[in-house]
Amino acid sequence: MASHRRPKPPNAAYTAALTASAAAAVAVSAQTASADPLPDPTKKGVQAQIDRLYEDATQATEKYNGAKEKADKLEKQVKDLQETAARKQGDLNDLRDRLGVIATAQYRSGGLDPSMQLLLSSDPDKYLDTASALDRLGDRQTTELKEFQSQQRDLAQQRKQAAEKLEDLGDTRTELGAKKQEIQSKLAKAQKLLNSLSAKEKAEIAKKEERADRSSERAELGNEASATQRAASAFEAAKSRVGLPYVWGATGPGSFDCSGLTSWAFKQVDVSIPRTSQAQANIGTRINSLSALKPGDLIIMRTDLSHVGFYAGNGQILHAPKPGAKVRYESIARSGMPFMWGVRM
Known about the structure:
By secondary structure, the protein is α+β, with helices and mostly antiparallel strands. It has helices at 12-34, 43-108, 114-121, 124-128, 139-195, 199-217, 229-239, 258-267, 277-280, and strands at 285-287, 298-301, 307-313, 316-319, 328-331, 339-344.
């Protein structure tokens, strides 16, 4: 019969060691919980990180596109203001010459009128502010002086506006450079992760993209009618770009980012739409239901509205999806991006 003896209590040394080990384990556990999680070393984990970096890069690309569009507009405004200022300076010089002729004639006829001396040697505003001095000039001279004053004010205003626009342009170019650096950094990190994979793993990723492209070629689009003729025409233009590469910031005709494809396609049918997906989300007529979409409608994706494509029919989107991919058809449900709404042009 087995005996049931009470176990001996552990000695003090053993108890102290056990307590220290437990404390260390708790400390390590707490430190691990509070620190950033280590990246998953498996192929699946690396692929998820690459996909996330590509998504971040495409989101940053739309912000870059917005800054680029703003910079382009500011550059045109600055150029127009500078050209206008140059014309006004020329007109002002011509008027100054005419006033000089008047002053010369007065001098030859017996002395220069004090009011003309004031004009040619100082600020004509002071002269015009003195109503009594106007009596010394004829109607023609008064008209010339008032025109001179008006043109001087216009010129000063044009130069001020040009200076303000130049300052805005400088800030926008700084923002543009920061967004460009952010995109390049994300893509470089993604490439570094991709390079860390084995040749076999890289081949599997490449095959996955090839399968997506082949699926695009076999996409069943149905025979739904487009909502409008211009949407149908823009969609036809976009179809001709299938198979061309995604390149951030590109607007065609040989490469595109997502909003670059849609804006290029509408441009081919003489319809101007904004450059970015966020701006494109707020034009036309909003279609809130996937089931109500028709081919040629724009599809706005992601909660930050950072992706756009064409509805292609039968639950498909035609778009430039991400770096490393080509313009293609893809199932909206399998795109990995939430549908926000459609836009009918």
